[in-house]
Amino acid sequence: MSNSAAGPSSKSKAGSSQPYGTTSFKHKRGVFQKDLQHMMYGFGDDANPLPETVALVEEIVVEYVTDLAHNAQDIGSKRGKLSVEDFLYQIRKDFPKLKRCTELLSMQKELKQVKKAFEVDEEKLAAWHQ
């Protein structure tokens, strides 16, 4: 992937079908490039991929996440609130993504429980020392 030339980008989806034009989010280019370079390397690309390739991957990822968030917001607005389930509903047909998301959510829940178990109540600690 590092030797591929970055062709013309397809901004037609993001530009034309954006019902959120009044609150459009302007993405600062290059914000995720360092992270994407590491991720691309981890998935088998060159350690230093072409800047054009990284920029193209960044554009694709940002567009995907933005579309996912907008679609989840559309679903959530019917109930009056946006929830994690709205995002899971969006990826329900992509089993590997759904499995990874549910795995990460369960790990997040476990971490919260572990942190809560190690929280020290200052009042109880002060009373115990007296």
TrEMBL record:
Residues 1-25 are annotated as: Disordered. One of its GO terms (molecular function) is protein heterodimerization activity. GO terms for biological process: transcription by RNA polymerase II. Keywords: Nucleus, Transcription, Transcription regulation. SUPFAM superfamilies: Histone-fold (SSF47113). The keyword Nucleus applies. Residues 1-17 have a biased composition (Low complexity). Belongs to the TAF13 family. This is Transcription initiation factor TFIID subunit 13.
